[in-house]
Write a structure and sequence with these properties.
Elements (H helix, E strand, L loop, with lengths): L1 E3 L5 E2 L3 E2 L4 E3 L12 H5 L35 E6 L9 H4 L2 E3 L4 E3 L13 H18 L3 E4 L11 H10 L4 E8 L9 E5 L10 H19 L12 E4 L3 H4 L5 E8 L3 H7 L2 H19 L1
Parallel strand pairs: 1-4, 5-8, 5-9, 9-12, 10-11
Antiparallel strand pairs: 2-3, 6-7, 10-12
Helix pairs in contact: 3-8, 5-8
């Protein structure tokens, strides 16, 4: 979740608050994720990840004539799963201030969670794994900003650098919001011009955002956000992951994890598979 006003204070077990999209560099306005106790209430099915690691090479689908259907061959996509599973254990490390050009912000944040304890880092990692597998099957080269959900960080500045160094054709940062429980829906966050490195790709990022928005809505049935942006589109200049990007990049808040309806979807492996497929379709529509 990516909060509008970074809450750099430590909450609960000494954690920084929020993530990206509505409130902090994680996105969302909900309270910080707690430790293992907060996750214990989550059913095992909620943390079910993609059947196989996204690092594996999937089977290549073929067309009716036996010709491999690889529409994304030659394309590089960077997937940024928001936050990390152990951020809450290292408040000093993630609260380190980094320069995002328009201000100084925390290196990273803990993310939010559903009322039952399903965490944003678990959600973003699961969807990212599923998305990576689909994109690879379509021929794309895929890079992730973190290797698992058992670490800390990386900092928001490093996440941007990974996309830049990969010379990505498109980059997407996946999040879940933590707003008030009455708010629901998804939204896309796109960069603003800041007289900085992101300026040359602001236009391309908007095209990417529109493609992903349309595909996500049609593919998942999730409503546009009722509380942020216009028709699920939000523009920000306070997110390091966008400000420092030199490649087309967007953030998506896949739903509000504090809303019961959105939470039920996000906790469902079947929904997460639909979300990953929709995101892949949006990326492909942009890249084709």
């Amino acid at each position: 979740m990516t909060s509008r006003a970074l809450v750099a204070t430590v909450a609960l077990c000494g954690l920084s608050v929020a993530a990206c999209g509505g409130t902090a560099d994680g996105t969302g306005a909900g309270p910080a994720v707690g430790g293992p106790a907060s996750r214990a209430a989550s059913p095992a099915s909620q943390t079910t990840e993609a059947p196989k690691s996204a690092q594996e090479t999937p089977q290549t689908p073929a067309t009716g004539g036996g010709v491999p259907a690889r529409p994304l061959s030659g394309k590089v996509v960077v997937i940024d799963p928001g936050h990390n599973g152990q951020n809450y254990r290292h408040p000093a490390q993630i609260n380190k201030q980094v320069n995002v050009l328009t201000q100084w912000k925390a290196c990273d944040t803990t993310g939010t969670a559903t009322p039952s304890g399903y965490t944003e880092p678990a959600f973003t990692w699961d969807v990212s794994q599923r998305l990576a597998k689909i994109l690879k099957a379509r021929g794309a080269t895929v890079k992730l900003t973190r290797p698992d959900n058992a670490g800390v960080g990386p900092c928001i500045t490093e996440r941007a650098a990974i996309g830049n160094e990969a010379k990505a054709d498109a980059a997407i940062s996946i999040h879940g919001d933590g707003s008030g429980s009455a708010n629901h829906g998804f939204h896309i966050i796109m960069p603003k011009r800041i007289n900085g490195p992101v300026d040359p790709v602001v236009g391309a990022s908007r095209k990417l955002g529109l493609a992903v928005r349309d595909a996500y809505k049609s593919g998942t049935g999730t409503a546009y956000s009722t509380y942020i942006g216009t028709k699920a589109l939000d523009f920000r200049n306070d997110l390091g992951g966008l400000n420092l990007s030199t490649v087309p990049k967007i953030f998506i808040e896949c739903g509000n994890m504090k809303n019961s309806g959105d939470a039920a979807n996000m906790q469902s492996p079947a929904f997460r598979q639909k979300a990953a497929t929709a995101l892949a379709n949006g990326l492909q529509n942009y890249l084709k």
